[in-house]
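User: For a reading group we're discussing how well predicted structures match intuition. Take Hydroxyacid dehydrogenase. Before you show the prediction, I'll give you the sequence so everyone sees exactly what went in.
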Amino acid sequence: MQKPIIYLQKAFRKEFVTKIQEIAPNYQVSTELADDELNNVEISVGWKQEKELQLLNHSNLKWVQAVSAGVDYLPLSEFEKKGIFLSNGSGIHSLSISEHVIGTLLTYYRGIGQAIKNQAVKKWDQTGIHYDQLSGKNLLIVGTGHIGKQLSVSLRGLGVNVYGINTTGHPVSGFIETYSIKNLAKIAEGMDIVVGILPGTEATYHIFNSDVFSHMKPDAVFINVGRGDSVHTKELATALKEQQIAFAALDVFEEEPLPVDSELWELENLLITPHISGMTVDFQRKFMTIFLKNLKSYVADGKLVENQVELRRGY
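Assistant: Thanks. Here is the predicted 3D structure of Hydroxyacid dehydrogenase, as C-alpha cells, for the group to look at:
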C-alpha cells in the first residue's frame, strides 16, 4: 500500500525535507506527482491554482499549509465543505513589512524621495524638499495581528504614538488604544498616518474608500501593505489628486502587475512599490518553524497548533 503524500509545491532545502521525513516517517515527501499518486496526497505545502481541481477532486487532501499570510486566493468554501484544515504563514513577514513601512515613512518625512528624483536630473535643491518629524506623529494601524504588533513595537521605538483597529476593538498589547473597524473613518480623523494591514475578505473589500479619505487630515499619509482590494483604487486616486490627503504609498494593488495605463503611475504624491514589502531574509527557515511545529502535532493527534485559519472568516 502506498504511503500518504506530503506534496511540496515549493522547492525547499534538503535540510528541511530531511526534517519532514524524520517527523513523518510514514509519509512520502514529493515535489512532483504522477497521475496515479494524486489520490494519496494528504498534505499540501503551498497551493498552485493550476493544481486546484486535481487536488480537490482527486486526492484525500486533509491539510493545506499556505506559504503566505493572506489566503484569499484559496478555495476556502471548498476547504470548509470537504473538512480540509488550512494554516498560513502569518508572522513570517512581520519584520520585513515593518521595516518597509518605516522606510516608506522616512522616505517621505525626510525628503529622501524628492532627493532621489532631484539626483536623477542633477538638481541641488534644499528649499524645495519636503521634511517633517516622524516622532510624535499619531499613527493608526488597521489590523493588529502579527504584523501590526511588530510594526507597533518598531514605531514606538521611534517615538510614534500608535493606535490600532481590529474587528471588535478588543485591546491589544503595544497600542495606546484600539477601536472597532466600524469606527474606521471617525478614528482616521485624528491620525497623521493610517497603515492598512488587512486580510482580503468580503468585510475588508474597498474598506479604504472616499469616506475614509475624506475624513483624514489634508497633511495625512496613507500606506497599504495588506491586500490590494482593501483599497478603492479610483477613490484613493481622487483623494490624492484633490489633495484630501498629502501622500500615499501602495505595495499591493487590486490588479497585479499594475497596468502601465493605470493613472496611479502619474500621481506625484504616490509611492508605488511592486509588492516587495513581504520579501523576507531566510524565508524558508522561518516558514519551516511554523510548518514543522504543525506537522509534529498533526502526526501525533491530527491537530494544528500554529496559524490555523478560520475558513469562514478568511484569516
